[in-house]
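Methods — Computational structure assignment.
A single polypeptide chain was analysed. Its primary sequence is given first, followed by the predicted tertiary structure written as structure tokens.
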Amino acid sequence: MNSVIFRAEIHEQIKKVGNADIIVGIPSFNNAHTIGHVVRAVQAGLAKYFPDHKAVIVNSDGGSSDGTTEVVQNTSIADFSAILLHHRIQPIAKIAFPYSGIPGKGSAFRTIFEIAQTLEAKACVVVDSDLRSITPEWIELLVKPVLDGGFDYVAPLYHRHKFDGTITNSIVYPLTRTLYGKRVRQPIGGDFGFSGKLAQFYLTKDVWESDVARFGIDIWMTTTAIANGFKVAQSFLGAKIHDAKDPGADLGNMLYQVVSATFDLMENYAAIWMPVRGSEPVATFGFEYTVGLEHVNVNTTRMLKIFREGLLNLREIWLRILGAGDLREVERLGALDDAEFHFPAGLWARIIYDYAIAFHLKKLPAEHLVKSLLPLYIGKTASFVIEAEPMGQSEADAAIEKLCMEFENNKDYLITSWK
């Protein structure tokens, strides 16, 4: 058992609650204009689907200055009977506090895990505080497989626009699926359900002073659950619509954060992923329906310019990482017209494996290495946008499935070079 030392004011709040069946964690940072909606949806979901269970909403805040925590404290559904089927038996407790530790989502999650452990919660959920599309049903879909189905981890499954979530589609999903053999479609989705048992297991891991605490937490939670043999499922939640993040602005940082966390996990779990061949679907809950999605505009001309600049500026680095053969292939792409630009799936899979191997062999400092992947990733994304422009959603999904098969078929290449 970890010894958990909470600050006095949190300790008081926890003591008042005593114990709980369900914990819903909402990490936040300056989300005053969206978090009220999230809290209302959570309360409605708990009241409607789990009226007999004692539930606690935990808002773990990163030091907001816009009144986020006040919004959480003041948001409640006044008249349950107006929107719900029956009254709750237990009132829902709320705990809101600033967390301590390295600033970042992982530190917020750690506090949520600790509270779950202290209150002996059976099921936990974490949801993003900037969600505009969350409904009360999300709570049922993330909690029920844990409480009734014996699952330890429930990943979200959303419909997203075909040009949204490209880091997931082109790197994280194909790589995670190939390494660990489970087809979890959104391994970095941000909204998860998990068992109290898994929350306790997470606390035993010594990662809280590392990059995981800052930003690698989603892929870390998913991979840790799969690699350690916990029972994993996914639930269809509909559309994910949240505060728009400018993909151009922090793409380099996001790519670095997610990819370096994924590569770090490969180091830890090499003995587990090496023998895995092929992949299998995981249990999926929820009723799949089509949703209207906000259009994502993409400027491929600008993206291909970044790719070609990479060819000029990073040639020496790419040669060290990819070797002469694959670099020649990449240079051939640079000579194509924009309209003809096509990045072959097999080449892309090998490039990601080459980067994983370079990371493993410490060929360059980690940040330097992963950031040199950016122009290649932007070129691959531009290629997908050009090809998928005329496609419907299901055709675009099929193209991503094909990419995953390239990763799976090339896995021996990774293993041979890794050893």
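Note: Residues 8-285 form a domain with the Spore Coat Polysaccharide Biosynthesis Protein SpsA; Chain A fold (CATH 3.90.550.10).
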